[in-house]
Design brief:
The structure is a homotetramer. Chain A is an alpha/beta fold. Chain A has two domains: 2-63, Phospho-2-dehydro-3-deoxyheptonate aldolase, domain 1 (Alpha-Beta Plaits, 2-Layer Sandwich), CATH 3.30.70.1140; 83-337, TIM Barrel, CATH 3.20.20.70. Chain A is 32% helix and 19% strand. Chain A has eleven helices and 15 strands. Chain A has helices spanning 11-23, 51-54, 107-119, 144-156, 171-177, 191-197, 214-226, 254-261, 270-274, 280-290, 316-332, and strands at residues 2-5, 28-33, 36-41, 59-63, 83-85, 88-90, 94-100, 124-126, 160-164, 180-183, 204-207, 232-236, 266-268, 294-298, 336-337. The first copy, chain A, has an eight-stranded parallel β-barrel, surrounded by six helices. Chain A has a four-stranded antiparallel β-sheet with strand order 2-3-1-4, with helices on one face. Chain A has a two-stranded antiparallel ribbon with strand order 5-6. In chain A, helix 3 packs parallel to helix 4, helix 6 (191-197) packs across helix 7 and helix 10 (280-290) runs parallel beside helix 11. The radius of gyration of chain A is 21 Å and the shape is elongated. Chain A starts with a strand and ends in a 12-residue tail after the last strand. In chain A, 55% of the residues are buried. Chains in contact: A-B, A-C, A-D, B-C, B-D, C-D. The A-B interface holds A 211, 213-215, 239-246, 249-253, 255-257, 260, 273-274, 278-279, 282-283, 285-291, 325, 328-329, 331-333 and B 211, 213-215, 239-246, 249-253, 255-257, 260, 273-274, 278-279, 282-283, 285-291, 325, 328-329, 331-333.
Chain lengths: 349, 349, 349, 349
Amino acid sequence: MIVILKENLSKKQVGEVLRQLSDLNLEIHNATLNDRNIVAISEFPHDFDIRRIKLLDGVQDVFEVREPYKLASRTWKKEPTTFDVKGITIGGNMINTIAGPCAVESEEQIFSIAKMLHQNGVKFIRGGAYKPRTSPYTFQGMAVEGLKLLRQAADQYNLRVVTEIIDLSVLDEVYEYADILQVGTRNMMNFYMLTELGNIDKPVMLKRGMSSKITEWLMSAEYILSGGNEKVILCERGIRTFDSSVRNTLDVAAFPIIKELSHLPVFSDPSHGTGLRHRVTPMALASIAAGADGLMIEVHNNPEQALSDGPQSLFPDQFVTMLEKIKPIAHVVGRTLDIEIPNTATAAK
Amino acid sequence: MIVILKENLSKKQVGEVLRQLSDLNLEIHNATLNDRNIVAISEFPHDFDIRRIKLLDGVQDVFEVREPYKLASRTWKKEPTTFDVKGITIGGNMINTIAGPCAVESEEQIFSIAKMLHQNGVKFIRGGAYKPRTSPYTFQGMAVEGLKLLRQAADQYNLRVVTEIIDLSVLDEVYEYADILQVGTRNMMNFYMLTELGNIDKPVMLKRGMSSKITEWLMSAEYILSGGNEKVILCERGIRTFDSSVRNTLDVAAFPIIKELSHLPVFSDPSHGTGLRHRVTPMALASIAAGADGLMIEVHNNPEQALSDGPQSLFPDQFVTMLEKIKPIAHVVGRTLDIEIPNTATAAK
Amino acid sequence: MIVILKENLSKKQVGEVLRQLSDLNLEIHNATLNDRNIVAISEFPHDFDIRRIKLLDGVQDVFEVREPYKLASRTWKKEPTTFDVKGITIGGNMINTIAGPCAVESEEQIFSIAKMLHQNGVKFIRGGAYKPRTSPYTFQGMAVEGLKLLRQAADQYNLRVVTEIIDLSVLDEVYEYADILQVGTRNMMNFYMLTELGNIDKPVMLKRGMSSKITEWLMSAEYILSGGNEKVILCERGIRTFDSSVRNTLDVAAFPIIKELSHLPVFSDPSHGTGLRHRVTPMALASIAAGADGLMIEVHNNPEQALSDGPQSLFPDQFVTMLEKIKPIAHVVGRTLDIEIPNTATAAK
Amino acid sequence: MIVILKENLSKKQVGEVLRQLSDLNLEIHNATLNDRNIVAISEFPHDFDIRRIKLLDGVQDVFEVREPYKLASRTWKKEPTTFDVKGITIGGNMINTIAGPCAVESEEQIFSIAKMLHQNGVKFIRGGAYKPRTSPYTFQGMAVEGLKLLRQAADQYNLRVVTEIIDLSVLDEVYEYADILQVGTRNMMNFYMLTELGNIDKPVMLKRGMSSKITEWLMSAEYILSGGNEKVILCERGIRTFDSSVRNTLDVAAFPIIKELSHLPVFSDPSHGTGLRHRVTPMALASIAAGADGLMIEVHNNPEQALSDGPQSLFPDQFVTMLEKIKPIAHVVGRTLDIEIPNTATAAK
């Protein structure tokens, strides 16, 4: 159940509502969402009469949400969540494209890619500074130096920065340089980290765990929302199935399901979702056709020399061709792109 | 390895080639495909010099195919397989739509649906006469009576019939009434049935096993192809994953993979693939965007009264709206529909 | 719901009960199980008062079974099902061992193995005559010749024959030579076959589908039971998971679950369940410790020359060592073996 | 490849070996394991002649390990790893039992359980102080107060403490109170945490990720080992499969596989692995029969009032009965328990 308190209540008045809810033997969880005082109630008897809450002083509205996730649920919030990132809208009718390399590798590399993105109208750049790798013997990222280069390149080409927070110990520096903080697939159930991200004022992109059910994904989003940060983007990045001939299976079927269950925007990462560059474009198109709100694409100025994820990174000209196909598909499903693709789209040389 | 023999060899000449191949200690499998004599060789040493075969009298060409499936492989046959079903092309540039109820239930039902399909330009009707159900206590289909009604309705409205052969014991009657014989997900590894279907001259639609790897699916196709029937259509219908909140997960990512590995046409069944009607259209669009060659859609004149699969059957007007969206998406990926959607598409009353 | 009719009702009296049940708007399914007339009722309202049935003339007892499987459920039959196969009890307190090669390959092979089994007290021999293989280019079995050799070897060494019915078209010959008919993993949902096997008077060993949920497995057993054949043995043989480094994962955890849900005996096949011979013994021991009622083990006189499944077949001396370890473990869980292991167990030379 | 350097090399001599290895164009990773200087080499050409390394000054031995995990591999270390925890041996021939509640809830609770464990000869107590829960609205643990109570109870009853480190931010306090630090299933791929745990001198119990392949699990162990901490215990706790009717599926088949691939001890957690108390004992027995080196069991003085995981916690008398059955099974597989079960085992009142 979600209880929305009236606006402009004094602290004492809020306390009074909470006391009365407790008196009803309900387990309550107070939060501020979008500057409004709300109360999430996780368990309540099946025959509970919610009018008992509606009649309390200070209560504006009550929504009966029986899903284990409350604030993430479409039951209480019908309209899609949208928010602004430095002048660009995320969610709603918009389709956003985030692109860039797996990892920041050098100044030359990241500036070259940033320039190419800018020339093609892209508004968001991605790049990893801390790389979680399954082997301790491989490239682990440039750390804070990578963050600085990414920020500089983004600023020069008017891009917004999306980068991963790999551990709470680097929260401060990632917060400083990023516009959107990404939670990786291996951290989707790192509840300590999610709780902290509920307290910040920047958007969080929450990747789906590689074997996480949709309900679990929404419960992880609930951790962030219940801390008061409503700027959450979900990102599907491929699940693990019985078919070992593929690295991951991009769960395109998740997009319409998320749209039914939640008001949160959901993006697609067909690069990790397929693991091979020539499968990226078909799956990007399929994601938009199925209802995704955005794309996260790995593109590299020189994929064959990339220090990580080279095989799944697009060449710049492949990326541009993909963007040109996305546009009419977005149109069919009633959406618009955040970029005006130039008449003569150009792959950086 | 696939060995193509020269045309117009006498039986004796063919025998001579086979003898020479056996003398090379190769395990050979002779077949006729598309009226050509070919030999599939399943195992051969890694350092085998294939020129030893090319030089044999009677051999026209040799393809080194190391995948366990040979005839299904794109390695030896680059161009997509196409074939004709009563004047309509399957495969290649074409996108086909097969539609109809889960099961034939009555004359009124099947004629009403057939009429609606015809009015909207559809060329193929589906309908089950034998229903494999997980419970012995539920509706099991109309059997041969259903087949007859399906055929009559199809003939009246110029439709081609796609229906399932549920067991070899009904092969003769299904063959008599069907234009395309469908192998269901539970029979994908029924090798006895696949072997028999290699001997017929009608197309076979081979649904993917609900937990079958792509390689296993192609091996099942190989059973049909190696018997001499090259008219095989693959059909993705949703796989089983760890996420129990969904009945099946339509594996949209399979379409580009099949296109890489095989020359066979591959269709999508978003009705079984999602299990819920409001998810069918997004997944149909996504399938075409990802490269599928056709759709298999459950549509019913009265879904809420359907004896089976009602919740996943589209209402006629939903079906028509879906068709209208498919067309521009097909165009983006360079494909055309087998139907010319009328300017004023009509849902049957 | 399971309704047990009184004994010695006339055909007319039975018809009268059925009519009255139909009048209550219940979907009824009449069957004979263990020579008793019973009625399975698959759907009934949640608030249905079952006393309305108890009071009908001709009804002896009524069990409220809400699981989708009825006759397979422990809800209505608390005590474990046991039955006799030529003097040996299956189920209950007993632990049975079935052993033999994957496929019958030659007279010499099958007699050699049968002799070794007999010398070690084993009572059941297995061997395939029809081999379903994923590739059409590999060994497909000796067919009826294999069945005859298997029967002869069994008769000479006082063994009972367990062999697979791969397709309904070979039912008559398999029925003639087998004591227990095995349904393979790929046929677990072949409902046509299951229905026919409900009409025979020999036991059926139903292997679990490689991706079948336990409920689905019990529903398949229900097909056989509802036809009137109560001699069903379940057999776990390894499931498919996300871990591609193993062929199958023997689901040892299924044994206690089956024991909770059903009264049917459940065996373990650690040979297919692991795919590698040195993992067979640990998994056989684990299965018995977890509650399995029997073992199905592949053993071969010459595993390295076996035409199929060589790598998972035990050498005779490994098999004997395994049996020696099984005995004390069976004792810990309160069970006894159907074999008295000779003091000096012998591997056949 | 694992290169073992000679003992008592000076720092300069070690540097010289590393320089020479680098000159061979090898990617090297220096570590100290068990007080010996070693070098792990992750990639090397397939035709590399390892004698070139053997002949270097300062090199004692070289092992060619081609698995992606090196130090965790049985290829270079044949004998099982054993180590001592306050007088009790882990690994080798020994079977250890760790038991206790899911979470520390109160002084009374944890002392009551500790006493019961002591009375039954158990040497290790478990208990969570920080609980990662999928819902932000449920009990999150007693934190450091819980750790203190756990330590006090353990000290009073001569038990060793096993508890989870849920986030790096609590490493110092967990290190202070624990004898073995447990990494939970959701942190198995938290490479930041694993790297830090490679630098401590206390054993780490690494639970398997709920969808992690065995190779991935060993790669995570490699992170700890390559930091210089060789005291790693693996713990299987149930994997996620397609069967949603069970919470987890304890992968008993993993035990023999781990034994083949690695020298590390591997424990079983049948409590999380089954999720229901009446399935715990059969799966504990099965685990030991399959080759597990230890058990991790949830037991509670009052399971029905437990704040978390009540349904999977054993009652004390069930726990004692389980221990009595473990002993003879351990004997069959040639193992001994770390506890001498008293003649009259007692469940605490």
